[in-house]
Amino acid sequence: MQHSIVIVDDHILIAKALAGIIENFKQFNVLYECENGKVLQDKLKVKKNIPDIVLLDISMPVMDGFATAQWLKEAHPEVLTIALSMQDDEQSLIKMIRYGAKGYLLKNVHPAELEKALDSLVKNGSYYPEWVTSKVFMSLSSESAVHSSRIDITAREKEFLQYSVTEMNYKEIAEKMFCSPRTVESYRDSLFEKLGLKTRVGLAVYAMKNGYN
């Protein structure tokens, strides 16, 4: 069974290169390419243009990847979205997950990893880069992570979890919580230990999975 893909990227050469690579994958085919989210919106008004997967560039004019992902989540929740980026920053990752992306790839990814990501997306529902450690997502799927009521999380730690989903840095979170950055770091470290996590990305995903966002 083949799965259809749409590539949304304002760099035509990159979009064409990606399409050429994907056409060599047995289980996938490219329906078309778009230069931004607005063009995609117009294309998806026609039912036959709705794909299984959207490969979505983050930085685009007119309608960027963040806005497009958010719209897809609301208008076409059945479509799986993978974000494409030149940067491996956790803020972009957190934001794209928040807006419904099920995967995140760097644009310099090897074709073999691209195929692996697409396979994982259709089989498991998600794919994330190695710098988001597998331990994060193992913890999220474990019984202790799913049933957060069994973990003794304080009210202030819950408040911190809500802010962990935002784009604020730790200093800005401290200002919102009316405490010092060192105190915020203590909340973070305590949650790392309680939840078995190591990164802010892990905390953010945990927060979204358990309704703290």
Structural class: alpha/beta
Q: What fraction of the residues are assigned to beta strands by DSSP?
A: 5-15%
The first-level CATH class of the largest domain is given as Alpha Beta
Strand order of the largest sheet: 2-1-3-4-5
How many helices in DSSP terms? 11
The main pleated sheet reads as: 5 strands, parallel
Query: How does CATH name the architecture of the largest domain?
Result: 3-Layer(aba) Sandwich
Mean pLDDT: 85
Taken in chain order, the helices and strands follow as EHEHEHEHEHHHHHHH
Q: Return Rg in Å.
A: 18 Å
The figure for the number of domains is 2
CATH topology of the largest domain: Rossmann fold
Query: Regarding quaternary structure, how should these chains be classified?
Result: single chain
The CATH homologous superfamily of the largest domain is called Response regulator
Give an overview in words:
The chain contains eleven helices and five strands. With 213 residues, the chain is α/β, with parallel strands linked by helices. It folds into two domains: 3-124, Response regulator (Rossmann fold, 3-Layer(aba) Sandwich); 134-209, Arc Repressor Mutant, subunit A (Orthogonal Bundle), CATH 1.10.10.10. Strands 2-1-3-4-5 form a five-stranded parallel beta sheet, with helices on both faces. Helix 1 links the parallel strand 1 and strand 2. Helix 4 runs parallel beside helix 11 (200-209). The longest helix has 15 residues, at 181-195.
Helices and strands in order:
Layout: E1 3-8, H1 12-22, E2 28-34, H2 37-43, E3 53-57, H3 65-75, E4 80-85, H4 90-98, E5 103-106, H5 111-124, H6 134-141, H7 143-146, H8 155-164, H9 170-176, H10 181-195, H11 200-209
Parallel strand pairs: 1-2, 1-3, 3-4, 4-5
Helix pairs in contact: 4-11, 9-10
